[in-house]
Amino acid sequence: MPDLLTRGQANELLDDAQRRLDLHTQLITGTCAACGHFDCIERELAMREFVEIQLGRLPRRAPGASQPHLCDRGGWSAWLIPVTRPN
Ligand SMILES: [Zn+2]
After folding, report:
1. Predicted confidence (pLDDT) per residue in 11-31, tens digit
2. If you write DSSP's letter for every residue of the chain in order, what string do you get?
């Protein structure tokens, strides 16, 4: 990445980083939707670009992109299961 970017170049780089984030979305299972790794380097590099290119833009996340149905255990209260135990 060059040291000095025009606003247009910075926006193009962030658009590309956003496309990579959309592709390498972290699923609710913790794995990457594209490569299947828990620690996806592509997602990490794309996130780093948003930090390094200080244009005031934040990464966007599409509702449902993490595919929460993968963890559907039969109801809205399924997330309580790990913290509630019978006495
Ligand atoms: Zn990935």
Report:
1. 999 999 999 999 999 988 889
2. --SS--HHHHHHHHHHHHHHHHHTPBPTTSSBTTT--SS-HHHHHHHHHHHHS-SS------TTTT-GGGG--SSGGGGGGGG----
